[in-house]
Amino acid sequence: MTSRTGPRPNLFIIGAAKSGTTSLHHYLNAHPEVFMSEPKEPGFFVEEMDYYPKDEAWYLGLFAAAGNAKVIGESSTHYTKLPIYPGVPERIAAFSPDARFIYLMRDPIERAISHYWHAVRQDAEHRPMLRAIQKDVQYTAFSDYRMQLEPYVDLFGRDRIFLMTFEELTADPRRAVQEVFRWLGVAPHDGPPAFERKNARPPEIERPRGRGLIHRFRFTPFWDRVSPYVPQGLKDRAKRLAVEPVKPSDEPVDAVVAYLRPMMQEKVRELSAYLGREFPEWTTVRATAAAADPAGVAV
Questions:
Q1: Which among 162, 36, 27, 37 is positioned nearest to 101, based on CA atoms?
Q2: Confidence class for position 232, pLDDT limits 50, 70, 90
Q3: β-strands 11-15, 71-75 pairing
Q4: What is the 3-state secondary structure (H, E, C) of 29-65?
Q5: Does 274 score more than 80 pLDDT?
Q6: Which of 30, 153, 55 is nearest to 101 (CA)?
Q7: Contact 102, 152 (CB under 8 A)
C-alpha cells in the first residue's frame, strides 16, 4: 500500500454483526467532535472482501473531510468474523497502532437468528433456518464473542475496547451513547431519545423456494436476454415458483433455540469468565423470560 498523509481513523466499530452497529455509527457521527466514514462498512482490512478498492489512497480518502475531528472512525462488522476472515486485528495494528475499538454484543441466539434472515434477504441463504445454522459455522462463530474479542485484547489491551450490548443500547440509547462519548473523551452531546433502527429488516421478505434454482436463473445473463420476449403472465408465474413471501416474525424458531441454547450458554459462561461480568439481559440464551422479538430484529 502506498502512504498518504491526512486524517487517519483512530476508532473502529468492529461488530458484532446484527447487533446495532449501524445505529451506533449514526449516533456517533452526529457528534461535532466525531467523524464516521461513509460508506459505513468499508471492510478495508479484510483481504477477502473486494466490493470496495483496496488501495490506501481510497481508504484514507473516506476520512479526508474529517477536518479537526477528535475521533475519526469507521464501522466494519467483517472485522470480527473469525474464522472466516482471519488476520484483521494484526493489519489494523500495523496501520493504526493507537486505535480504539467498540464491540457491540447481542443475545447470541437472537443474533444468529437475525443473521440468518439478513442472509435470506441478501439472497445468500436458501436453506431452512435450522439446517443453515447447523451446517454453516458463521451463524454460531459470529456469536462466539470471546473468540472474536481475544485477538484484539491480546494486541491492543482491554482498556482500548469499549463493550456494550445491543440490549443496553436499545433499552436506554441516550445513556448508552453518553457512556461512549465519555469513554472517547469528547464533550457530552444530545443523544437519541429513543432507539432508531437503521438497516431494519422489513416485516415481509422474499425467500427462494426449494434450492433457489429458479430464483437464481432470473438473475442470469441468459434471462436478461430472453426476458423481453417472455409474456408477463409467464414471468409472474415463474416468480411465484421462484420465491415465497415470508414474515420472519411468524416463523417458528423453537427448534433453532433448542439447538442453540446449550451451545450458547456455554459460550456465554466462557465470555462472562473472560470479561468478569454477567449478561442478565440475554433472556433467550438464559431462558429466563420470553424474548421480545424471538425472530430477531435486523439492525
A1: 162
A2: confident
A3: parallel
A4: HCCCCEEECCCCCCCCCCCCCCCCCCCHHHHHHCCHH
A5: yes
A6: 153
A7: no
Predicted pLDDT of residue 292: 42
Task: Please provide the average confidence, as pLDDT, over all residues in the chain.
Answer: 86
11-201+251-286: CATH number: 3.40.50.300
Could you state, in order of their start, the residue ranges of all structural domains in the chain? 11-201+251-286, 205-246
Whole-model pTM?
0.83
Amino acid 161: pLDDT: 98
> Residues 52-79: pLDDT tens digits?
888 999 999 999 999 999 999 999 999 9
Q: Could you identify the residue written with the cell 443453515? A: 132
Copy the grid coordinates of residue 251: 416463523
Q: Please choose, from the candidates 263, 296, 266, the residue with its C-alpha nearest in 3D space to the C-alpha of residue 137.
A: 263
138: cell is 458463521
Using DSSP, state whether 275 is helix, strand or coil: helix
Write b or e for each residue in 255-287: b if 16 or more Cβ atoms lie within 10 A of its Cβ, otherwise e. Answer: ebbebbbebbbebbeebeeebeeebeebbbbbe
- How far apart are the C-alpha atoms of 122 and 235, rounded to whole Å? 21
Rounded to 5°, the CA angle 41-16-173 comes to: 90
User: By three-state DSSP, how is residue 126 classified?
Assistant: coil
Scan for cell 440490549, then name that residue. Answer: 167
